[in-house]
Amino acid sequence: ANVANLLLARVMRQERELAIRAALGATRGRLTRQLLTESLLLSLVGGALGLTIAPWALDALTELASRFSPRFGEIRIDMLVLLFTLGISLATGILFGLAPAFSFRGDLNDAIKESGKSTDTRGRQRVRKALVVAQLAFSFVLLAGAGLALRSLWKLLTVNPGYRTEKVLAMRLDPSFTRYKEPADLQLLTRNVLEKVHALPGIRSASLSTTFPLNPRQLNAPDTTNTDFLMEGHPVEPGKIAPRVMAIVASPEYFDTIGLPLIRGRWFDEHDEKETLQVAVINDSMARHRWPGEDPVGKRVSFDKGEHWATITGIVGDMKAFGLDRPAAEEIYRPLKQQQFANNLLIRTSSDPQTLIRAATQVIHAAAQDVAVYDASTLEKARENATASPRLTAMLLSLFAALALIITAVGLGGVLALSVSQRRQELGIRMALGATHGSVVRMVLLQGLSMAGLGIAIGLPASLALTRLVSAILYDTSPNDVLTMFGVSTLLIAVAAIACYVPARQATRIDPLIALRSE
How far apart are CA 512 and CA 431, in angstroms? Predict the structure, then answer.
Protein backbone atom coordinates (compact mmCIF):
# COMPACT_ATOMS: atom_id res chain seq x y z
CA ALA A 1 0.00 0.00 0.00
CA ASN A 2 2.87 2.38 0.76
CA VAL A 3 4.57 1.57 -2.55
CA ALA A 4 1.28 2.17 -4.35
CA ASN A 5 0.95 5.58 -2.68
CA LEU A 6 4.51 6.48 -3.62
CA LEU A 7 3.88 5.49 -7.23
CA LEU A 8 0.64 7.48 -7.35
CA ALA A 9 2.51 10.53 -6.06
CA ARG A 10 5.09 9.93 -8.79
CA VAL A 11 2.25 9.90 -11.34
CA MET A 12 1.54 13.59 -10.72
CA ARG A 13 5.11 14.55 -11.52
CA GLN A 14 5.05 12.52 -14.75
CA GLU A 15 1.86 13.82 -16.31
CA ARG A 16 3.38 16.93 -17.89
CA GLU A 17 6.34 14.88 -19.14
CA LEU A 18 3.96 12.37 -20.75
CA ALA A 19 1.94 15.18 -22.30
CA ILE A 20 5.06 16.67 -23.89
CA ARG A 21 6.12 13.23 -25.17
CA ALA A 22 2.66 12.73 -26.65
CA ALA A 23 2.81 16.18 -28.25
CA LEU A 24 6.07 15.17 -29.88
CA GLY A 25 4.42 12.11 -31.39
CA ALA A 26 4.74 9.33 -28.82
CA THR A 27 1.86 6.85 -29.01
CA ARG A 28 -0.03 5.49 -25.99
CA GLY A 29 1.64 2.12 -26.53
CA ARG A 30 5.10 3.72 -26.50
CA LEU A 31 4.27 5.58 -23.26
CA THR A 32 2.92 2.40 -21.70
CA ARG A 33 6.10 0.48 -22.54
CA GLN A 34 8.21 3.23 -20.97
CA LEU A 35 6.14 3.17 -17.77
CA LEU A 36 6.14 -0.64 -17.70
CA THR A 37 9.95 -0.71 -18.03
CA GLU A 38 10.36 1.77 -15.18
CA SER A 39 7.87 -0.09 -12.96
CA LEU A 40 9.45 -3.48 -13.58
CA LEU A 41 12.90 -2.07 -12.90
CA LEU A 42 11.76 -0.54 -9.60
CA SER A 43 10.02 -3.77 -8.57
CA LEU A 44 12.95 -6.01 -9.48
CA VAL A 45 15.54 -3.79 -7.79
CA GLY A 46 13.35 -3.63 -4.67
CA GLY A 47 12.89 -7.40 -4.75
CA ALA A 48 16.65 -7.92 -5.15
CA LEU A 49 17.31 -5.72 -2.12
CA GLY A 50 14.70 -7.68 -0.19
CA LEU A 51 16.39 -10.96 -1.09
CA THR A 52 19.71 -9.49 0.01
CA ILE A 53 18.26 -8.56 3.40
CA ALA A 54 16.31 -11.81 3.82
CA PRO A 55 19.23 -14.10 4.84
CA TRP A 56 20.42 -11.57 7.42
CA ALA A 57 16.89 -11.18 8.74
CA LEU A 58 16.54 -14.97 8.82
CA ASP A 59 19.70 -15.30 10.92
CA ALA A 60 18.44 -12.63 13.33
CA LEU A 61 15.03 -14.32 13.58
CA THR A 62 16.59 -17.74 14.14
CA GLU A 63 18.84 -16.35 16.86
CA LEU A 64 15.81 -14.80 18.57
CA ALA A 65 13.67 -17.93 18.19
CA SER A 66 16.42 -20.14 19.64
CA ARG A 67 15.76 -18.56 23.03
CA PHE A 68 12.12 -19.69 22.96
CA SER A 69 11.91 -22.94 21.01
CA PRO A 70 14.18 -25.93 20.34
CA ARG A 71 12.72 -26.08 16.80
CA PHE A 72 14.47 -22.89 15.68
CA GLY A 73 16.58 -24.95 13.25
CA GLU A 74 13.46 -25.58 11.14
CA ILE A 75 13.10 -21.88 10.27
CA ARG A 76 14.02 -21.30 6.64
CA ILE A 77 13.14 -19.17 3.62
CA ASP A 78 10.12 -20.90 2.10
CA MET A 79 9.94 -20.94 -1.70
CA LEU A 80 6.15 -20.54 -1.83
CA VAL A 81 6.29 -17.52 0.47
CA LEU A 82 9.14 -16.11 -1.62
CA LEU A 83 7.14 -16.52 -4.85
CA PHE A 84 4.10 -14.94 -3.20
CA THR A 85 6.04 -11.85 -2.11
CA LEU A 86 7.66 -11.62 -5.54
CA GLY A 87 4.24 -11.73 -7.18
CA ILE A 88 2.86 -9.05 -4.86
CA SER A 89 5.88 -6.81 -5.49
CA LEU A 90 5.61 -7.13 -9.28
CA ALA A 91 1.82 -6.73 -9.31
CA THR A 92 1.98 -3.60 -7.15
CA GLY A 93 4.73 -2.04 -9.22
CA ILE A 94 3.10 -2.80 -12.55
CA LEU A 95 -0.48 -1.90 -11.56
CA PHE A 96 0.26 1.44 -9.96
CA GLY A 97 3.26 2.25 -12.13
CA LEU A 98 1.00 2.08 -15.19
CA ALA A 99 -1.59 4.38 -13.60
CA PRO A 100 -0.48 7.39 -15.73
CA ALA A 101 -1.07 5.43 -18.92
CA PHE A 102 -4.59 4.50 -17.80
CA SER A 103 -5.47 7.98 -16.54
CA PHE A 104 -3.83 10.03 -19.31
CA ARG A 105 -6.57 11.15 -21.70
CA GLY A 106 -4.46 12.97 -24.24
CA ASP A 107 -5.59 16.52 -23.33
CA LEU A 108 -2.20 18.04 -24.13
CA ASN A 109 -3.09 21.70 -23.80
CA ASP A 110 -4.37 21.43 -20.23
CA ALA A 111 -1.44 19.26 -19.14
CA ILE A 112 1.22 21.57 -20.59
CA LYS A 113 -0.52 24.71 -19.26
CA GLU A 114 0.05 23.43 -15.73
CA SER A 115 3.62 24.78 -16.06
CA GLY A 116 5.15 21.87 -14.21
CA LYS A 117 2.70 22.10 -11.30
CA SER A 118 1.70 18.67 -10.00
CA THR A 119 -2.03 17.96 -9.94
CA ASP A 120 -4.08 15.30 -8.27
CA THR A 121 -7.55 14.14 -9.22
CA ARG A 122 -10.26 13.28 -6.73
CA GLY A 123 -10.11 9.69 -7.92
CA ARG A 124 -6.43 9.38 -7.05
CA GLN A 125 -7.00 11.04 -3.70
CA ARG A 126 -9.71 8.50 -2.93
CA VAL A 127 -7.42 5.63 -3.99
CA ARG A 128 -4.58 6.88 -1.79
CA LYS A 129 -6.87 7.33 1.20
CA ALA A 130 -8.41 3.91 0.60
CA LEU A 131 -4.94 2.35 0.62
CA VAL A 132 -4.12 4.00 3.96
CA VAL A 133 -7.45 2.91 5.44
CA ALA A 134 -6.73 -0.65 4.28
CA GLN A 135 -3.32 -0.49 5.97
CA LEU A 136 -4.93 0.73 9.18
CA ALA A 137 -7.53 -2.05 9.05
CA PHE A 138 -4.90 -4.75 8.50
CA SER A 139 -2.74 -3.27 11.22
CA PHE A 140 -5.69 -3.42 13.58
CA VAL A 141 -6.17 -7.13 12.84
CA LEU A 142 -2.47 -7.87 13.43
CA LEU A 143 -2.41 -5.79 16.62
CA ALA A 144 -5.54 -7.55 17.86
CA GLY A 145 -3.94 -10.95 17.26
CA ALA A 146 -0.74 -9.86 19.00
CA GLY A 147 -2.69 -8.35 21.89
CA LEU A 148 -4.70 -11.54 22.40
CA ALA A 149 -1.53 -13.66 22.25
CA LEU A 150 0.21 -11.44 24.82
CA ARG A 151 -2.81 -11.43 27.13
CA SER A 152 -3.07 -15.21 26.83
CA LEU A 153 0.67 -15.59 27.52
CA TRP A 154 0.44 -13.37 30.61
CA LYS A 155 -2.38 -15.52 31.99
CA LEU A 156 -0.43 -18.68 31.19
CA LEU A 157 2.72 -17.42 32.93
CA THR A 158 0.76 -16.44 36.05
CA VAL A 159 -1.19 -19.70 36.34
CA ASN A 160 -0.68 -21.66 39.55
CA PRO A 161 0.86 -25.03 38.56
CA GLY A 162 0.02 -26.56 41.95
CA TYR A 163 3.67 -27.09 42.97
CA ARG A 164 6.77 -24.97 43.64
CA THR A 165 9.33 -24.73 40.86
CA GLU A 166 11.93 -22.52 42.51
CA LYS A 167 15.32 -24.03 43.46
CA VAL A 168 14.51 -27.62 42.40
CA LEU A 169 17.04 -29.59 40.35
CA ALA A 170 16.01 -32.62 38.28
CA MET A 171 18.49 -35.26 37.09
CA ARG A 172 17.92 -38.52 35.28
CA LEU A 173 19.71 -41.68 36.46
CA ASP A 174 20.31 -44.69 34.25
CA PRO A 175 21.78 -47.65 36.16
CA SER A 176 23.27 -50.63 34.40
CA PHE A 177 20.60 -53.31 34.78
CA THR A 178 23.17 -56.02 34.10
CA ARG A 179 24.72 -54.93 37.39
CA TYR A 180 21.47 -54.25 39.30
CA LYS A 181 19.37 -57.30 38.46
CA GLU A 182 17.66 -57.94 41.78
CA PRO A 183 15.13 -55.65 43.56
CA ALA A 184 17.39 -55.63 46.62
CA ASP A 185 20.24 -54.22 44.53
CA LEU A 186 18.01 -51.42 43.27
CA GLN A 187 16.79 -50.66 46.80
CA LEU A 188 20.39 -50.44 48.00
CA LEU A 189 21.26 -48.14 45.09
CA THR A 190 18.29 -45.92 45.95
CA ARG A 191 19.31 -45.64 49.59
CA ASN A 192 22.97 -44.92 48.77
CA VAL A 193 22.13 -42.21 46.22
CA LEU A 194 19.71 -40.40 48.54
CA GLU A 195 22.12 -40.60 51.49
CA LYS A 196 25.02 -39.19 49.45
CA VAL A 197 22.91 -36.37 48.01
CA HIS A 198 21.45 -35.46 51.41
CA ALA A 199 25.00 -35.06 52.73
CA LEU A 200 25.75 -32.25 50.27
CA PRO A 201 25.72 -28.70 51.70
CA GLY A 202 22.67 -26.59 50.83
CA ILE A 203 20.35 -29.58 50.26
CA ARG A 204 16.90 -29.12 51.80
CA SER A 205 15.32 -32.34 50.51
CA ALA A 206 15.88 -35.00 47.86
CA SER A 207 13.72 -37.72 46.35
CA LEU A 208 13.48 -40.21 43.53
CA SER A 209 10.43 -40.53 41.28
CA THR A 210 9.42 -42.05 37.98
CA THR A 211 8.58 -38.61 36.59
CA PHE A 212 8.10 -34.98 37.59
CA PRO A 213 5.84 -32.07 36.49
CA LEU A 214 6.32 -30.92 32.88
CA ASN A 215 8.95 -33.59 32.31
CA PRO A 216 9.90 -33.24 28.61
CA ARG A 217 9.98 -37.02 28.19
CA GLN A 218 6.52 -37.28 29.69
CA LEU A 219 5.12 -34.46 27.51
CA ASN A 220 6.31 -36.27 24.39
CA ALA A 221 4.83 -39.62 25.51
CA PRO A 222 2.07 -38.98 28.10
CA ASP A 223 0.65 -42.52 28.02
CA THR A 224 3.86 -44.10 29.34
CA THR A 225 2.95 -43.21 32.94
CA ASN A 226 -0.69 -44.32 32.72
CA THR A 227 -1.87 -47.65 34.07
CA ASP A 228 -5.12 -49.61 34.52
CA PHE A 229 -6.58 -49.93 38.02
CA LEU A 230 -9.60 -51.27 39.85
CA MET A 231 -11.56 -49.68 42.70
CA GLU A 232 -12.79 -51.99 45.44
CA GLY A 233 -16.55 -52.29 45.24
CA HIS A 234 -16.64 -50.95 41.67
CA PRO A 235 -16.05 -53.92 39.36
CA VAL A 236 -15.54 -53.30 35.66
CA GLU A 237 -18.58 -54.34 33.64
CA PRO A 238 -18.02 -57.02 30.98
CA GLY A 239 -16.95 -55.47 27.70
CA LYS A 240 -15.98 -52.20 29.37
CA ILE A 241 -12.42 -50.86 29.60
CA ALA A 242 -10.81 -50.53 33.01
CA PRO A 243 -10.19 -46.96 34.18
CA ARG A 244 -6.69 -45.55 33.72
CA VAL A 245 -4.72 -43.19 35.91
CA MET A 246 -1.31 -41.54 35.89
CA ALA A 247 0.78 -43.62 38.33
CA ILE A 248 3.90 -42.12 39.93
CA VAL A 249 6.35 -44.08 42.04
CA ALA A 250 8.24 -41.82 44.47
CA SER A 251 10.24 -41.76 47.67
CA PRO A 252 8.63 -40.14 50.77
CA GLU A 253 10.26 -36.72 50.37
CA TYR A 254 8.86 -36.25 46.85
CA PHE A 255 5.86 -34.21 48.04
CA ASP A 256 8.02 -31.91 50.15
CA THR A 257 10.61 -31.53 47.37
CA ILE A 258 8.15 -30.24 44.77
CA GLY A 259 5.93 -28.53 47.34
CA LEU A 260 2.75 -30.55 46.74
CA PRO A 261 0.29 -29.79 49.58
CA LEU A 262 -1.42 -32.49 51.65
CA ILE A 263 -5.20 -32.02 51.73
CA ARG A 264 -6.25 -34.91 53.90
CA GLY A 265 -4.81 -38.07 55.46
CA ARG A 266 -1.06 -38.72 55.34
CA TRP A 267 1.77 -39.13 52.88
CA PHE A 268 3.59 -42.44 52.79
CA ASP A 269 6.83 -42.56 54.78
CA GLU A 270 9.92 -44.69 55.41
CA HIS A 271 7.84 -47.32 57.23
CA ASP A 272 5.83 -48.16 54.10
CA GLU A 273 8.00 -51.02 52.85
CA LYS A 274 7.62 -54.11 50.71
CA GLU A 275 6.59 -56.27 53.62
CA THR A 276 4.03 -53.84 55.05
CA LEU A 277 0.54 -52.97 53.93
CA GLN A 278 0.55 -51.54 50.39
CA VAL A 279 -0.50 -47.90 50.37
CA ALA A 280 -1.14 -45.14 47.85
CA VAL A 281 -1.81 -41.41 47.79
CA ILE A 282 -4.17 -39.84 45.24
CA ASN A 283 -4.63 -36.28 44.05
CA ASP A 284 -7.74 -34.16 44.51
CA SER A 285 -8.95 -34.60 40.90
CA MET A 286 -8.99 -38.38 41.26
CA ALA A 287 -10.75 -38.14 44.62
CA ARG A 288 -13.53 -35.93 43.25
CA HIS A 289 -13.95 -37.90 40.03
CA ARG A 290 -13.73 -41.48 41.29
CA TRP A 291 -15.37 -41.06 44.70
CA PRO A 292 -17.79 -38.15 44.35
CA GLY A 293 -19.36 -37.22 47.68
CA GLU A 294 -17.21 -39.79 49.54
CA ASP A 295 -13.99 -39.78 51.51
CA PRO A 296 -11.47 -41.89 49.53
CA VAL A 297 -9.08 -42.24 52.48
CA GLY A 298 -9.25 -45.89 53.55
CA LYS A 299 -10.58 -47.06 50.17
CA ARG A 300 -8.58 -49.65 48.25
CA VAL A 301 -7.36 -49.89 44.66
CA SER A 302 -5.63 -52.64 42.70
CA PHE A 303 -3.19 -52.50 39.83
CA ASP A 304 -3.05 -56.23 39.08
CA LYS A 305 -6.73 -57.08 38.51
CA GLY A 306 -7.49 -57.61 42.19
CA GLU A 307 -4.61 -59.86 43.23
CA HIS A 308 -3.18 -57.21 45.55
CA TRP A 309 -4.82 -54.12 47.00
CA ALA A 310 -3.32 -50.79 48.07
CA THR A 311 -5.02 -48.64 50.69
CA ILE A 312 -5.39 -44.91 50.03
CA THR A 313 -3.79 -43.05 52.94
CA GLY A 314 -3.98 -39.44 51.77
CA ILE A 315 -5.08 -36.86 49.23
CA VAL A 316 -2.70 -34.24 47.81
CA GLY A 317 -3.31 -31.18 45.68
CA ASP A 318 -3.52 -31.17 41.91
CA MET A 319 -0.60 -30.19 39.70
CA LYS A 320 -0.45 -29.39 36.01
CA ALA A 321 1.88 -32.17 34.94
CA PHE A 322 1.18 -32.15 31.18
CA GLY A 323 1.01 -28.41 30.48
CA LEU A 324 0.08 -25.18 32.19
CA ASP A 325 -2.78 -24.77 29.75
CA ARG A 326 -4.20 -28.24 30.43
CA PRO A 327 -6.31 -29.39 33.37
CA ALA A 328 -4.74 -31.52 36.07
CA ALA A 329 -4.76 -35.24 35.33
CA GLU A 330 -5.87 -37.89 37.80
CA GLU A 331 -2.79 -39.12 39.66
CA ILE A 332 -1.94 -41.84 42.14
CA TYR A 333 1.36 -42.05 44.02
CA ARG A 334 2.95 -45.26 45.25
CA PRO A 335 5.91 -45.60 47.64
CA LEU A 336 9.27 -46.40 46.08
CA LYS A 337 10.11 -49.06 48.70
CA GLN A 338 7.06 -51.09 47.61
CA GLN A 339 8.10 -50.95 43.93
CA GLN A 340 11.32 -51.39 41.96
CA PHE A 341 13.21 -48.22 41.02
CA ALA A 342 12.65 -44.59 40.05
CA ASN A 343 15.21 -42.88 37.85
CA ASN A 344 14.43 -39.15 38.27
CA LEU A 345 16.33 -37.50 41.10
CA LEU A 346 14.77 -34.28 42.42
CA ILE A 347 16.75 -32.02 44.75
CA ARG A 348 15.46 -28.90 46.51
CA THR A 349 18.31 -26.57 47.38
CA SER A 350 18.75 -23.40 49.43
CA SER A 351 20.78 -21.74 46.63
CA ASP A 352 21.00 -21.80 42.84
CA PRO A 353 20.43 -25.47 41.90
CA GLN A 354 22.54 -25.14 38.75
CA THR A 355 25.66 -24.78 40.88
CA LEU A 356 25.06 -28.22 42.45
CA ILE A 357 24.91 -30.24 39.23
CA ARG A 358 28.60 -31.11 39.25
CA ALA A 359 28.71 -31.94 42.96
CA ALA A 360 25.55 -34.07 42.78
CA THR A 361 26.90 -35.98 39.79
CA GLN A 362 30.14 -36.70 41.61
CA VAL A 363 28.46 -38.09 44.75
CA ILE A 364 26.13 -40.24 42.64
CA HIS A 365 29.12 -41.74 40.84
CA ALA A 366 30.75 -42.24 44.22
CA ALA A 367 27.70 -44.22 45.31
CA ALA A 368 27.63 -46.23 42.08
CA GLN A 369 30.09 -45.73 39.25
CA ASP A 370 27.97 -47.60 36.71
CA VAL A 371 25.05 -45.15 36.89
CA ALA A 372 24.80 -42.63 34.06
CA VAL A 373 23.63 -39.13 35.01
CA TYR A 374 22.18 -36.84 32.34
CA ASP A 375 19.36 -34.37 31.51
CA ALA A 376 20.23 -32.19 34.50
CA SER A 377 17.92 -29.19 34.59
CA THR A 378 15.59 -27.29 36.91
CA LEU A 379 11.83 -27.30 37.32
CA GLU A 380 11.85 -23.62 36.46
CA LYS A 381 13.55 -24.47 33.15
CA ALA A 382 10.99 -27.22 32.51
CA ARG A 383 8.20 -24.69 33.06
CA GLU A 384 9.94 -22.21 30.79
CA ASN A 385 10.27 -24.83 28.04
CA ALA A 386 6.60 -25.75 28.42
CA THR A 387 5.64 -22.16 27.56
CA ALA A 388 8.16 -21.76 24.73
CA SER A 389 5.63 -22.16 21.93
CA PRO A 390 3.11 -19.54 23.15
CA ARG A 391 5.96 -17.15 24.00
CA LEU A 392 7.42 -17.52 20.49
CA THR A 393 3.97 -17.03 18.93
CA ALA A 394 3.32 -13.90 20.99
CA MET A 395 6.79 -12.55 20.20
CA LEU A 396 6.47 -13.06 16.45
CA LEU A 397 2.94 -11.65 16.28
CA SER A 398 4.03 -8.62 18.29
CA LEU A 399 7.08 -8.12 16.05
CA PHE A 400 5.04 -8.26 12.85
CA ALA A 401 2.28 -6.09 14.32
CA ALA A 402 4.83 -3.47 15.40
CA LEU A 403 6.38 -3.43 11.91
CA ALA A 404 2.93 -3.11 10.33
CA LEU A 405 2.10 -0.25 12.69
CA ILE A 406 5.30 1.62 11.82
CA ILE A 407 4.74 1.17 8.07
CA THR A 408 1.13 2.28 8.43
CA ALA A 409 2.16 5.38 10.38
CA VAL A 410 4.69 6.25 7.66
CA GLY A 411 2.03 5.78 4.97
CA LEU A 412 -0.50 7.91 6.81
CA GLY A 413 2.03 10.66 7.44
CA GLY A 414 3.13 10.55 3.80
CA VAL A 415 -0.41 10.91 2.46
CA LEU A 416 -1.09 13.87 4.76
CA ALA A 417 2.24 15.50 3.87
CA LEU A 418 1.35 15.25 0.17
CA SER A 419 -2.11 16.64 0.89
CA VAL A 420 -0.61 19.61 2.76
CA SER A 421 1.79 20.35 -0.11
CA GLN A 422 -1.13 20.35 -2.56
CA ARG A 423 -3.23 22.62 -0.35
CA ARG A 424 -0.55 25.24 0.25
CA GLN A 425 -2.57 27.97 -1.48
CA GLU A 426 -5.78 27.04 0.34
CA LEU A 427 -4.04 26.94 3.72
CA GLY A 428 -2.27 30.22 2.95
CA ILE A 429 -5.59 31.90 2.19
CA ARG A 430 -7.11 30.50 5.40
CA MET A 431 -4.27 31.90 7.50
CA ALA A 432 -4.37 35.22 5.60
CA LEU A 433 -8.06 35.45 6.53
CA GLY A 434 -7.27 34.89 10.22
CA ALA A 435 -7.10 31.14 10.74
CA THR A 436 -4.91 30.32 13.76
CA HIS A 437 -2.13 27.77 13.78
CA GLY A 438 -4.20 25.65 16.17
CA SER A 439 -7.18 25.53 13.83
CA VAL A 440 -4.95 24.52 10.89
CA VAL A 441 -3.34 21.77 12.99
CA ARG A 442 -6.77 20.51 14.07
CA MET A 443 -8.00 20.49 10.47
CA VAL A 444 -5.07 18.35 9.26
CA LEU A 445 -5.24 16.10 12.35
CA LEU A 446 -8.97 15.51 11.82
CA GLN A 447 -8.28 14.55 8.20
CA GLY A 448 -5.79 11.91 9.33
CA LEU A 449 -7.77 10.72 12.35
CA SER A 450 -10.88 10.30 10.21
CA MET A 451 -8.93 7.80 8.10
CA ALA A 452 -7.71 6.10 11.28
CA GLY A 453 -11.27 5.91 12.60
CA LEU A 454 -12.49 4.39 9.34
CA GLY A 455 -9.64 1.88 9.41
CA ILE A 456 -10.58 0.86 12.95
CA ALA A 457 -14.25 0.62 11.98
CA ILE A 458 -13.30 -1.83 9.21
CA GLY A 459 -10.58 -3.63 11.16
CA LEU A 460 -12.66 -4.27 14.28
CA PRO A 461 -15.28 -6.59 12.69
CA ALA A 462 -12.54 -8.18 10.57
CA SER A 463 -10.48 -8.92 13.67
CA LEU A 464 -13.51 -10.30 15.52
CA ALA A 465 -14.01 -12.73 12.64
CA LEU A 466 -10.35 -13.65 12.10
CA THR A 467 -9.23 -13.86 15.72
CA ARG A 468 -11.43 -16.93 16.13
CA LEU A 469 -8.83 -18.69 14.00
CA VAL A 470 -6.25 -18.15 16.77
CA SER A 471 -8.58 -19.27 19.57
CA ALA A 472 -6.80 -22.65 19.60
CA ILE A 473 -3.56 -21.02 20.77
CA LEU A 474 -5.22 -18.83 23.42
CA TYR A 475 -5.37 -19.74 27.10
CA ASP A 476 -8.26 -18.46 29.20
CA THR A 477 -8.71 -15.56 26.79
CA SER A 478 -11.75 -14.84 24.62
CA PRO A 479 -11.03 -14.08 20.93
CA ASN A 480 -13.41 -11.13 21.38
CA ASP A 481 -11.73 -9.78 24.50
CA VAL A 482 -13.12 -6.27 24.98
CA LEU A 483 -10.10 -4.96 26.90
CA THR A 484 -7.71 -6.06 24.15
CA MET A 485 -9.82 -4.50 21.39
CA PHE A 486 -10.09 -1.25 23.34
CA GLY A 487 -6.33 -1.19 23.94
CA VAL A 488 -5.57 -1.85 20.26
CA SER A 489 -7.97 0.89 19.17
CA THR A 490 -6.38 3.35 21.61
CA LEU A 491 -2.87 2.44 20.45
CA LEU A 492 -3.78 2.81 16.78
CA ILE A 493 -5.42 6.20 17.37
CA ALA A 494 -2.39 7.39 19.36
CA VAL A 495 0.09 6.29 16.67
CA ALA A 496 -2.09 7.86 13.96
CA ALA A 497 -2.21 11.14 15.90
CA ILE A 498 1.60 11.17 16.19
CA ALA A 499 1.96 10.37 12.47
CA CYS A 500 -0.47 13.18 11.59
CA TYR A 501 1.13 15.75 13.85
CA VAL A 502 4.29 16.22 11.74
CA PRO A 503 2.47 17.22 8.50
CA ALA A 504 0.02 19.23 10.62
CA ARG A 505 2.88 21.26 12.06
CA GLN A 506 4.26 21.69 8.53
CA ALA A 507 0.98 23.27 7.49
CA THR A 508 1.37 26.00 10.11
CA ARG A 509 4.76 27.01 8.64
CA ILE A 510 3.24 28.03 5.30
CA ASP A 511 3.80 31.74 4.63
CA PRO A 512 0.46 33.19 3.37
CA LEU A 513 2.22 35.76 1.14
CA ILE A 514 4.40 33.17 -0.59
CA ALA A 515 1.41 30.82 -1.01
CA LEU A 516 -0.67 33.58 -2.62
CA ARG A 517 2.15 34.78 -4.90
CA SER A 518 2.68 31.25 -6.25
CA GLU A 519 -0.61 31.47 -8.15
Answer: 6
